[in-house]
Amino acid sequence: MKKKKGSKVAIIFVILFAFIAIVAVISNSDTSSDSSSDTNNSNVSNTTETANTIIAENDYFTAEYIEASSISGVDGMFMISLKIKNTSNQSEIFLLEDVYIDDTKANFSGSGVPQTVLPDKNLNGVFSIAYPEKIENAKIIEFKIVCMDESYNKLITTRTITIKQ
Q: What span, in angstroms and rounded, lies between the C-alpha atoms of 40 and 1?
């Protein structure tokens, strides 16, 4: 039993280390972006209550919300599953930021490793989030999707996306 708990702790530390490395790279990179960096297309609703709903669409990508669920065997973590289609002609890297659960900031959000998607390809990916309570009990999940180029320069950040459970 102790061995199993130790491996869970090791997984969490690896995820945290990867996230810190990503943040360090991002904060040291040039964060200049075009004038559309904080918007997504106005014809897409930023609030959804249903799975398989388009939550962001712009010149760089289209994102579909799949689900938010607990990570089996890992207390204090859950995952947000998204399907992201890279609609540009360049590789893109995706992260989540400003993640809030019922108006409480999540301590950590990331994916363990950057989610890189080639041009005109899809990502069926999960983003791991640290949160001390079961996500199934949450009423509202909020986050932004950040899209960056291969040099970690921000291309676009969506407005806050709200998921009502």
A: 47
Reading the chain (165 residues) residue by residue, the pLDDT tens digits are 555 555 655 555 445 444 444 433 333 333 333 434 444 443 455 666 677 899 999 999 999 999 999 888 888 889 999 999 999 999 999 999 999 999 999 877 665 567 899 999 999 988 989 888 889 899 999 999 999 999 999 999 999 999 998
42: number of Cβ within 10 Å: 9
* Angle at the Cα of 47 from the Cα atoms of 145 and 103, rounded to 5 degrees: 75
Q: Which residues contact 7 (CB under 8 A, 6 or more apart)?
A: none
